[in-house]
Design goal:
With about 450 residues, the chain is an alpha+beta fold. It contains 20 helices and 11 strands. It has helices at about 20-25, 55-70, 90-95, 105-115, 125-130, 130-135, 135-140, 165-170, 180-195, 210-220, 240-250, 265-275, 285-295, 330-345, 350, 355-365, 380-390, 400-405, 420-435, 445-460, and strands spanning about 30, 45-50, 75-80, 100-105, 145, 150, 150-165, 280-285, 300-305, 315-325, 410-415.
Length: about 450
């Protein structure tokens, strides 16, 4: 995850945590740290998550957007800060009135924040400004409750199949037509191993990522880790056991899976970058650390939609990301100003060609990936238009993501567990490890035991 936000996987690995700053550069938040503005005075907001001074191009773009925002709204008193989300200090800062008026929070936090009334109702502002009209409807559902809207999704990741296009070619597979079902994944993994001697598939298993990826595989089969309310464990079913059985069979029957049962994110990244892994499940943003930090050839990176059980099924992707929310004591005027800033700074590139190209230029000048296809926060047609606007500036090989992009409009989205997600993932890490390291692992018993432990955590 990449973060300060907890919902992006590569930043979970300490060795890749430095990528979080780059990834979070586009996150913005606004707020008035002095409390709600008076209705008859100027509207005061503080824009947070200002890029660090070392991100010169991103900072310059941010400053330019701030100046544009001020010019558009001369009655707003605007200040900026690098301040942003911190799970450890959020409640205390909220109680002390020391939060930005708007800030980015992980998907995993939004349900609890809504239930605890720790975020403002933005329904009037987003409706008046037409924000929800351009957003991906499935993501709008994640920030809605009782017919009201409590946040604006600004970034989302999608889980899918990462694969090495060069190894596909060596194995006689078509890199433009990667596996679409789990049976296809198993066949391709064995063919890669048989033809190249390289493990066709690998899976991260430590630091809660084993459970996280297993959760994505469970979701792809129609299952889930928890119910919608987040208070009941639901992974003690065939969707999870079938996912684990596939891993077991690739490891012990086909000998096509990496035998490393304690594989961390860095281990997996290094193995893949070293041409020692054919495929794995993760989010599309894996492209960034692989190509920017580990020198993996961008031309060899492939990304496809999550495999399904049967051909023709709509893919289901587990997703997380960033949602901009407004502090609960903000005035209606401040809430509207905050949403106006989000429109300009976060969503502007999807509605304005000039904004799209300015953002792309800033990223490219820093040597950063410009537009890594993932789960669009806007509707599919708007996202495709955005990609066309920056096609000549984008340093990411979009065609390599086409097996994913062709499924974007039809894929279904399942959010990460809204309560104690990391704790739930942690209960499943040893289950995945056991299946990879013990040929005689009792999958049903392992899953049942993990479910009981996880339910105990939820019930506390």
């Amino acid at each position: 995850m990449k973060r300060p936000l907890r919902s992006r996987p590569w930043a979970k690995a300490a060795a890749l945590a430095a990528l979080a700053a780059v990834a979070a550069g586009g996150l913005t938040a606004c707020g008035g740290t002095d409390g709600p503005a008076a209705s008859d005075g100027p509207v005061e907001i503080t824009i947070g998550n200002q890029p660090a001074a070392t991100e010169t191009a991103r900072l310059a773009l941010f400053d330019s957007l701030v100046e544009t925002f001020k010019a558009q709204h001369p009655n707003y008193v605007v200040t900026t800060t690098e301040d942003g989300w911190d799970a450890q200090t959020f409640s205390a800062r909220l109680a002390g009135g020391d939060l930005p008026t708007v800030m980015g929070v992980p998907f995993t936090e939004i349900r609890g924040l809504i239930e605890r009334k720790q975020v403002a109702d933005l329904t009037d502002a987003v409706n008046e400004l037409g924000v929800t009209d351009v957003l991906n409807p499935q993501l709008v559902d994640l920030v809605s409750a009782d017919g009201k809207t409590y946040g604006v999704p600004t970034m989302a990741y999608a889980m899918g199949l990462v694969y090495n296009r060069a190894l596909f070619e060596k194995a006689g597979l078509d890199p433009a037509a990667p596996p679409t079902t789990w049976d296809d994944v198993r066949k391709a993994a064995k063919q890669i191993t048989d033809k190249t001697g390289v493990p066709g598939f690998a899976q991260v298993t430590t630091n809660n990522q084993g459970g996280w990826v297993l959760g994505a595989e469970t979701a792809s089969r129609g299952g889930s880790l928890v119910n919608d309310a987040g208070d009941k464990i639901t992974f003690d079913d065939s969707a999870t056991t079938d996912s684990l059985t596939l891993l077991h069979d690739m490891r012990w029957k086909d000998d096509s899976m990496s035998p490393n049962g304690l594989m961390g994110a860095l281990d997996l990244a290094q193995a893949f970058a070293g041409q020692q892994v054919g495929m794995f499940i993760l989010q599309s943003d894996a492209y960034r650390p692989l190509t920017e930090q580990l020198a993996f050839p961008s031309a060899d990176f492939g990304f496809a939609a999550m495999p399904t059980v049967s051909k023709g099924d709509a893919p289901i992707t587990l997703s997380g990301g960033n949602i901009d929310v407004v502090r609960p004591d903000a005035s209606p005027a401040q809430a509207k100003a905050a949403v106006e800033w989000i429109q300009l700074a976060e969503l502007g590139k999807f509605t304005s060609k000039d904004a799209a190209r300015a953002d792309a230029t800033a990223l490219a000048s820093q040597g950063s990936a410009v537009a890594i296809p993932g789960l669009p926060v806007v509707k599919a047609d708007a996202y495709e238009q955005y990609l066309s606007w920056i096609a000549d500036l984008n340093n990411v090989p979009i065609d390599n993501f086409r097996p994913y992009l062709d499924k974007v409009a039809e894929q279904k989205v399942q959010s990460e567990p809204p309560v104690k997600g990391q704790d739930i993932y942690a209960t499943l890490d040893p289950v995945v490890q056991a299946v990879i390291t013990d040929q005689n692992a009792n999958i049903d018993a392992l899953v049942s035991g993990a479910a009981s432990t996880a339910q105990g955590l939820l019930s506390r």
